[in-house]
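Inputs:
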Amino acid sequence: MPKTSNKPLILITNDDDITSPGIHNLVAAVKELGKVVVVAPEKPQSGMGHAITIGEPLRMNKMNLFGDVEAWQTSGTPVDCVKLAVDKILRRKPDLCLSGINHGANHSINVIYSGTMSAAMEASIEGIPSIGFSLLDYRYEADFTASKYVVHKMVSRILSKKISKHFLLNVNIPPIPLSELRGIKVCKQAYAKYEEDFDERVDPQGKKYYWLTGKFVNFDKARDSDVYALQKKYVSVVPVQFDLTNYKLKAELEKNNLFG
Amino acid sequence: MPKTSNKPLILITNDDDITSPGIHNLVAAVKELGKVVVVAPEKPQSGMGHAITIGEPLRMNKMNLFGDVEAWQTSGTPVDCVKLAVDKILRRKPDLCLSGINHGANHSINVIYSGTMSAAMEASIEGIPSIGFSLLDYRYEADFTASKYVVHKMVSRILSKKISKHFLLNVNIPPIPLSELRGIKVCKQAYAKYEEDFDERVDPQGKKYYWLTGKFVNFDKARDSDVYALQKKYVSVVPVQFDLTNYKLKAELEKNNLFG
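Outputs:
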């Protein structure tokens, strides 16, 4: 990985907000591996997907929340944080962007809805190698001990190699002690979805309102899926891309000339 | 395409909001081709990407905005609209979901940020064939005459064929008269990005704030990209998928055993 100073520059963001234990554990895990700068949302942004803020302006403030690590909170989405970091905060392009550690799973179809992974993807679009980390425990009190070990190991390895500028990984970590972890497995995104089941309620004025809830359904039987790896107590690593073209369908449509 | 009644059921949504000319032109273009139900946001949701609403409840109200076409507005994002339609509004699974017609381009990397395309993708995840339509004219007064013709032609063709349940297209239409349109071209997503350039201002209290702006940069020289087709006065059609796995990088990582 090219470095313009001795230490690699590592941008850290998340979607749970700048005060969440996940991002503090992420900083602790990699602090010694480079110069870390944190740019993260001031309020929770879970489920924001790849949202950007275009109808209102953004604010950012320097914070003293990570000891001697430079940190900024912004009023924006996770993707806005990466954009602000690149354009307004960092003096050079970071060598690596890390997002998380998310409180909760981002395997399979969750990659689409996840603010954590959208921030990582935005960095990848910018040409910054990037990794999103998620622990399968959504609680504030989640134990990040094993996650910190995994993050440190993976980031050390990556910083020692020459990797492509669009290198992008979605890493999920099972909620078990380090001694029970069986390893790190490269996977594909499992084919899965949520079956919606809105919870209908009535407000004190007699008007209906709806809470989004849903049941996770995994249709994927493949042994190289992230869901399978996590069930088997492996850390799942899915390489991700931002080219959404369905090349198989493209070839079919060209062949049958559907719109000719 | 399987039909459980005589007429195909067509779900229509967008991201500009339920009052925008784009969605009214979309309804007008396909009304005669099936039973249309509109479920769309009550306020603009451009740039919302694949955001879902999980921290607050949703509202929905039946509206009389499309003559004899059933229509609902919701307080949610475009993706929420599709979820509410499937779980709470429609009595059966739609045969097709159409999103748009967006006021403004959603070619190339815009597919990632676009609420229009995220709604279409959500339908595809649900197993509903889906198309997002965008006109390369962001103005409220945009002329949708040629777009209506293109939409009607494409939807008629698709309804006459057997297509896969995850069939998903990103269609962009150049802002020119029908007589100048050269045809419909199947494309790949151009490799492009926005170079951020936040506009820094100072509020009356002396505090800084930032507006997101950016310059579109197309790195793609391929002749089968959507940006190229649009420049050449074609309607661009990019088949899209929600499996974001980078299989090439997966094979590389498996081969070099980076995390072993």
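Remarks. Chain A has a mean pLDDT of 95. The helical segments of chain A are 21-30, 78-89, 110-113, 115-125, 145-159, 226-231, 247-256.
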